[in-house]
Each structure stands twice: as structure tokens, then as C-alpha cells.
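Schema walk-through. Below, the input block comes first and the output block second. Nothing else is stored per chain. Lengths vary across the set, and this one has 599 residues.
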Amino acid sequence: MLMRGQSKGAVFVLLGPFLPRMEQSIEQTTEILLHLSPDEAANLKEGINFLRNKKTGKDYILYKNKSRLRACKNMCKHQGGLFIKDIEDFDGRSVRCTKHNWKLDVSSMKYINPPGSFCQDELVVEMDEGNGLLLLELNPPNPWDSEPRSPEDLAYGEVQVTYLTHACMDLKLGDKRMVFDPWLTGPAFARGWWLLHEPPSDWLERLCRADLIYISHMHSDHLSYPTLKKLAGRRPDIPIYVGNTERPVFWNLNQSGVQLTNIKVVPFGIWQQVDKNLRFMILMDGVHPEMDTCIIVEYKGHKILNTVDCTRPNGGRLPGKVALMMSDFAGGASGFPMTFSGGKFTEEWKAQFIKTERRKLLNYKARLVKDLQPRIYCPFAGYFVESHPSDKYIKETNIKNDPNELNNLIKKNSDVVTWTPRPGATLDLGRMLKDPTDSKGIIEPPEGTKIYKDSWDFGPYLKILNASIEDEIFRHSSWIKEYYTWAGFKDYNLVVRMIETDEDFSPFPGGYDYLVDFLDLSFPKERPSREHPYEEIRSRVDVIRHVVKNGLLWDDLYIGFQTRLQRDPDIYHHLFWNHFQIKLPLTPPNWKTFLVHCE
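--- output ---
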């Protein structure tokens, strides 16, 4: 028995592997994760069985329904939490994650909270010759193992990694220079995020010297159009590499007005050769493969792993014992729970939730580092601050993890060397690999260098947002039907009340306050009489109108803390939010035609 479960002025090039010859053959492997004796197999109960391999300490779930068996790892797809029995499930088919209360129906291997979201990876269940059971995992070959290279000695200064700010690193790799995710000026997520660190004064010159840039995904703290606009003014043809995600990273390039002409879209899991010593490979995220990526850079056999913001980078399969690993660590990159109110969302509950979640994230990152055993680990991609005065509440409540706390936790459980970066600090990889105690291994910025920003130029960016408030579009109430018809989300039982507000989330004088019934995409005056989930979304008028006018994704609202939300019942509607945050049309609404019809 075997059971298994583009844009004007820009050039987009879809690239394959640089190397013309075929990669060496690497075969799929099968791993026995758990072996049940005939008696243990015979004693399996109908429904859910929680199992553990006593030798490895790993946990599994096996679901039995008469003669049918399905199995999976006892590990939530979200952030690796442990499943337990769901006491609210009377049918004996679902389990609940102890981290974020995600729920999995193990009879179908589909997640039911969030509804309509993900499927669990299944294991193969096989009967052995003695009527025992084997839980097997089929492991495809690791793409980074193709054409393996042995590490060569590195000269001092040959490989240097300089931290600029947030997720931006400047890598010197022999005679090539590569930059990750340059966000170095302006805000991210409309007006909600601002840089915590003061970038080195020569950041633009550094970008201009780069031979290539990697941008991991479309979020504006990684794809920063204000930064790229300054770069394009000097080097519009600089090669920028992105993964071939379902939603193109540069989907909004034409709207941005930034003139970049050399964007290269590369397939996942294929080495891209830069020169004889340098190559890189982009991998997708296991939870958000439609938009998120990570990267492996290899120079003379030494690997640098940057998992960026990926929730489950490459589905959890990553190279071990790399020379340098960097990842996010801070938390707080979401409107949940700070922007929620009503029901359980008291200030006390939110404070306790944030404290608990940050601790879980620290433990998760520490465990990941312990499992992968890189020589050096660097926490980054979490250095932002809600600095605009109107977001004082978010700044005070959205507590983030301390990188030093994570590094101390890592050092308690492993021999991994850790690096808490400061703007302009440079790590010499050759020195650090040879002797981590070398005083020249990490060169800190000169004494007196400004580390933290204490002022931000809000004006130009707020002016752009405020310009949308008086746009002619919003003189006609029919914009509401036009916009949501364009958005294309319907046939889903959810009613949303949208309220335009001022800075303090009080109704904006003369602003719109309307209902959208997404079951039939109607706009009723009152909530329908049928049973339906309900959400109330208050949005600052400048940001919501800017988003609507330009056909932007709702990350600017939600991740940018520009909304306040209530929901009944307290359920995360994955299909709704995923659509408005990721799946909106690639071109904005045709407001020009709309206005003609309004005349």
C-alpha cells in the first residue's frame, strides 16, 4: 500500500541559467521519518493520531479513516508551530497550532484557519512486509548542490559585507559588487515606516558602483522607488535581478515614473553565473511563493544565505553550514494586532500578545540558526520606525525584538558567531572565517558616526498623498463601484464597511462611508439580513484615496498602519486580504474613461 497524500522604458529579461552545459544529475532521496511496528500500526485509532520518533524527537500526525491513511509533519506551515488537538472540533478532523491558532483539517490536509489559504505537505505512508507502517519523505534534490564547489581560501579584504540600513547590504565579492534591497531614503508603506538607521553618507555612490542589485520582493522597504529614482538618475541601466514570482516584483514600475532599463527576471533554483568565482541562486518562499524570495550568493565555494522576509524560505529546505546567514528578526511588520479594536482586542491583550509573539519569533529564528549552523549570523531587515507624529500610538505599542537579544540566545545554544550591524560597519569574511576573534574581522564605523536618524523629511511624501484627497475622481460617488469592480474580488460571503477618516481615525468631513457586500459585489445601504462575517475598516483619507487612484496594493494601508479594524466574528479572511494585498490587477483603474462617462 502506497499513499500520497512591463513597462514603458524598461527592459525586462527572463533569464535561464548562464552556464550552457547541463548540470550534474542529482537524484531524489527518500527518508524514513518514522517506523511503526505491526502492533503500533494495528493500535492506531480512527481519526487523529499524534506520533513521535523517540530517537529524533520529531513529531508527526497520522489521520486514519477506515482503510485510508494520511500523514504529515506536526509542524505548522506558517512559522513551524506545533499542532495540538482542536477542542472546538467535534468531528475529530482538525488540529490547532499553538503559535497563532492556525487550524489544519488533517482529513483533507487543508488549512481551515485562515480559510481558503494553504495545503499541508503530505508524507508518504507505506506498509512494510510485516504489516508495520513507514512514514516517508520524498526529498527532491537541493538545487544548490548542482555543480558543487569546494571552498577556497579567501584573501583578507577579498569578500567584504557592509551594512547600509534595514535590509540593504553592500557586498564586495572579488572585483564585483552586489547590493541587496536598497531602501535608503523616503518612507515605506505609504507613510507608515521610516528608516531607523542613518545610512552612510556615500550610499548613492555605493549603489552606482554596484555591478548588480538583488531585490527580494515588491514590499516598499525592499523595493524603494524613492531610492531607485535617485539611482536611475545616474545609472538607469544598472542590472537589477528579481525572482520570477507570480506577481512581478516591478509590476508598478511604469506608474512609479522611475526610469530603469535593465531588470532581469530569473527562474528559481538555478545558479546564475556572474564570473568564474561568483554565482547566485534565487529561491521562493514556501508560504508566499507568489511574491517573496530569498537568495544564496556563492563566491569561491563560500555561501552567503539571505532569507530576507521569507516566512518559510524554500519551504524550510536550506543549505547548512554556510559562511554567512542573514535574516529578519524584529517582528512588527503587520497591522495586527495594534490596529484592531473591539472584542478581545484590549490594550492589555494586545500588549501580552505582542510580547508573546516576539518571544516566539526569537525562539524560531534561534532554532533555525541552530539547525542550519552557519559560521556567522547577522540579524537585519527589521530596522524601521513609525516616526511620523500621527503614528505615536503604533510606535509606542509595536515593540520589536532587540537584535542583541536574539544573538545572545543563539550563542547560548551554539557556537555560531553573531554580528549586530551598524550603518557603515564592514565584515571581512576571509578574516572572520579564519579567526572570529580577529579585531579587524569587523570594522565598525568611525567614532562619532551618526547611527540613528533623529529627523525625517516627511513633507514631500505627504504632499504626494494629500494631492489625492481633492482628485476629481472622488467628486463622483460612482468611483466606489468602479474601483471594486476593477479589483475583481467577489463571490465571497463578507461584508465590509469602509470609512474615510482624518489623522485620528475619526470620520473625515465630507468623506465616504459605505458598505461592500462581496458575495454579489453590491453596495447596500444597510447590512444584509443573511448571516455574514463583517469587517469595519477605517482608513486615513489621504492614503486610501492615493491607493485607490493609483491601483496600489493594500499593504500601504494594512502593513503601513493606516487603518483601524474591527471584525465579527474574529476570523482572518485570507482570501479577501490576499487578494487586495497581492492579487489586484497589474494595471490601475482607467479613471480617464471613468471621468468621461461621468460628464
